[in-house]
């Protein structure tokens, strides 16, 4: 098989666009006899992680630990069992025993792979899990352990493509104080409730998401506020790329939240990046030398926020920074570039990126944005990912240099938003396409049921 055919095989078969079903056909439409034969074909290609995946699934098929599971799902289960021997952040507990460790209360949200709720630790948790001591409330994500290969969460797929030591390095990094200080949501412990459920215990965000905060604004935020938020978003991604060694793959306002409630005339709380369901763990942490490299990965994310190269089947650190560029454009100009807001689906979004250019002169905004803000936004929205700023370069941009302390949320420009922004109609207009996309399954890469 030629190298270009190898990549095509990887994209069409190993990473099918429909994540809800195992691939049924090969490159030319011939039936694939089984996942077992598929993994053997993968290993024969010599692609990164392929032989490791073949070995893992072979071991899973020979094990009686998780009967009834398809090969990759069984391999993931065995991986969890293996890492818990040397990782105190994963605790295997008996079936239906989560309630003895945490008392669940209000539901916080529901996604493609699980539900999130608020929980308080019990005396048993405080006694047996040192990492949760000193805190009274947590957010907990409940995830059903997959039985079918097609139901594996994206982050789980990436775990099977890296070594155990690399997975442990990633998991450990997400539990550190450095992650919390770097605007990431911090994980504390994962409870593996055999045989069906995993509970991920993490920081509780008490404030609104960035999406809700944007909608609530009656004036354009001052550029000091915009640059301060931009710096925090970049800091989170810089940590995820350079320390944890992973790609987020779904950077958008809904996946940033404030650590505490927002109060008028008070400094904005710390902003945090969350929702790691579509994260892809890399074989090695990103360096400045590799910060513009792309990997052959399936299309993933939410349609209006997907970078041009991702639509072409490749993604990397620049693809996450594209999302920051779009968010900052919204904060500064109160609109999305490239006419992306008008795109009802992925095909329209991809076409808009191909046809339209970034043109600040056409933006319908009452703000006279500074040259520094325009330059910064443009550096993150280069269609060519090789020309896009890296996180190192972006964090050193002069526009961000004066945003060390967050201004108060009452710091606003003199520009009042157009009158329509104060009505429910604007909220509908601004977020309609994202809500519609979600309802139509356009958050690509997520399952439709928990």
UniProtKB/TrEMBL annotation:
Location of the Protein kinase domain: 102-400
Superkingdom as given in the UniProt entry: Eukaryota
GO MF assignments: ATP binding; protein serine/threonine kinase activity
InterPro entries: CDPK_Ser/Thr_kinases (IPR050205), Kinase-like_dom_sf (IPR011009), Prot_kinase_dom (IPR000719), Protein_kinase_ATP_BS (IPR017441)
Annotated positions binding ATP: 141
Keyword Nucleotide-binding belongs to the record: yes
Gene3D superfamilies: Transferase(Phosphotransferase) domain 1
Keyword Transmembrane: no
Alphabetic keyword roster: ATP-binding, Kinase, Nucleotide-binding, Serine/threonine-protein kinase, Transferase
SUPFAM superfamilies (alphabetical): Protein kinase-like (PK-like)
Name of this chain's protein: Protein kinase domain-containing protein
